Amino acid sequence: MFVAATLALLATLALTLVRALKGPTVFDRALAANTVGTVAVLLLAVMEFLTGRPDFLDLAIVYGLLNVVGTIAVLKFFRYGDLGEPGEGPEDR
Question: H or E stretch including 24?
Fold first, then answer.
């Protein structure tokens, strides 16, 4: 059953990479990149069950968090042109 899930995830990954390459807009490509990250998390979780190594699940959780933060940062950059205003430093006081 897990082998079938792995093959389905690999097929999803291939279709997502096609969308990332053919995406007409930047937002389509960003969504495809987020989907690749999600599929990678799922593949890590399936590999954990197949191999019985619980450290893969820890890696999947960390990669999932990085995927969310990275996607938000990329979308904010494309929408506003920067990632935020610089904070007030000691030289600005």
Answer: none
The chain-wide mean pLDDT, for the chain, equals 85
Give yes or no for a contact between 41 and 67, defined as CB atoms under 8 angstroms apart.
Answer: yes
The residues, ordered by sequence, that sit 6+ positions from 4 with a Cβ below 8 Å of its Cβ are none
| Contact between residue 72 and residue 84 where contact means Cβ atoms under 8 Å apart | no
Residues 17-36: pLDDT tens digits? 999 898 888 888 888 989 99
**Strands in the chain per DSSP E:** none
Domain segments of the chain as ranges: 54-81
